[in-house]
Write a structure and sequence with these properties.
Helix content: 25-40%
Distance between the termini: 45 Å
Radius of gyration: 18 Å
Number of helices: 6
Strand content: 25-35%
Strand order of the largest sheet: 3-2-1-4-5-11-10
Shape: globular
Structural class: alpha/beta
Number of strands: 11
Order of helices and strands: HHEHEHEEHEEEEEHEE
Length: 250
Amino acid sequence: MADDEDGYFGESVAATYDESTAGMSTPEALEPMVGFLAELAGRGEGGRALELGVGTGRVALPLARRGVPVHGIDLSRAMVARLRAKPGGDGIGATIGDFATTRVAGTFSLAYLVFNTIGNLTTQDAQVDCFRNAAAHLEPGGCFVVEVGVPDLRRLPPGQSVVPFRISPTGWAYDLYDPATQAMSSNYVEVVDGRGSFRSIPFRYVWPAELDLMARLAGMRLRERWADWTREPFTGESGKHVSVWEKPAG
């Protein structure tokens, strides 16, 4: 169930978030992403970056250490509190709010949204609003970057709506899909000392071509699309994509 203030990323999630994403937070894992983003940010005058869903600063902090000023938007006060407590966290501007609609002062050469976070917006209208909000923050020639998985519907045989992705003696996790509405949820069952707990987080999965249309509605056009941050080619077998849309320069 969502926390009234912090959505689905309240204190109970924030307390273990960095531990749960440790494998994606090593310097080796982050370097390709941070290099990619820093290169795009540096194309604009001033080189400022806006992170939608800044969380605990997994990306914002190393990007700032590369010399790119970063401002973040996030609904979760609990997540942002952990960002601010980290070394360098006080140098990251952070605004509490819905990143689909919250505006901050100034313009940016780069806006970015990583790790499937576009799916936390659970309606098509909200996702369209997010693209419009990103475009409104960008200076002419600025770029909006999204990292998101390709919907894994090929794993669903006819009549099945559940795909497990983690099973252990003390818990299991599974995704639940509704192909008619593009609604899905990630569900977690944990058993500790004989007591069970259940957590469910809703998402809306979205196709690459659908994102391109959202970008066009916001006045942006696709600039490039890759399978990952190292710029491997995107193909029909790719499990995710890193896409870059550009706001016209004139």
